[in-house]
Design brief:
membrane; 9 helices; transmembrane; mainly alpha
Length: about 190
């Protein structure tokens, strides 16, 4: 996890909110999809310790999903810019989803954020961190510890982890909750 100073966190959160506002404006005006956020803009919330940034990222991905669905209905021919932008968001969405399914390193070739990690670095991470995929997942993300730790400690250990984690997230993070419900409904059961 990248340690960001508060000013950097504010900047990252502001960039995410600005991207969401720009996308909402495009959707409202019915214009074609503009440039999708740069991969670094999309990756920073995954590397930070901010639950609010992850929630904003989930909302942004859902918004772009709706924009691309509407754009597909409006345009009969698929131009190269549309296809390229859709591919970037698809790859990044795969990265985000793999973070929930604890497959960050094992399925890194499918996405965009972690795809360029050198195999030696991945090997060292796996050697240094036992069960690295699980420990690097969003379910175990430090950003959500204040929201899930107390509630999970008070339950019977036989209860389903995913269900309890999702219930805690559902109460606090609207966009992330909608993202999980739409793309990974099995985590809500």
């Amino acid at each position: 996890m990248v340690c960001l100073i508060p000013e950097s966190m504010c900047m990252m959160y502001s960039v995410m909110r600005a991207e969401a506002k720009r996308a909402r404006c495009e959707a409202r005006e019915g214009r074609a999809v503009g440039a999708v956020p740069r991969p670094l803009t999309l990756a920073l919330p995954l590397l930070s310790g901010s639950a609010a940034a992850l929630d904003t990222l989930a909302g942004l991905l859902l918004l772009y999903r709706n924009i691309f669905t509407a754009a597909k209905r409006r345009t009969k021919s698929k131009d190269q810019q549309y296809l390229r932008q859709k591919q970037i968001l698809k790859c990044f969405s795969l990265d985000f989803v793999s973070c929930f399914y604890e497959k960050i390193l094992s399925e890194r070739k499918e996405g965009i954020v972690f795809s360029k990690l050198h195999p030696q670095i991945v090997g060292k991470l796996i050697d240094l961190i036992p069960d690295a995929d699980s420990k690097l997942s969003i379910r175990n993300h430090l950003a959500f510890a204040p929201y899930t730790y107390v509630k999970v400690q008070q339950i019977d250990r036989r209860d389903d982890d995913n269900k309890l984690w999702f219930k805690a997230i559902d109460e606090e993070f609207e966009s992330l909750s909608h993202f999980i419900k739409q793309l990974m409904p099995e985590l809500t059961l």
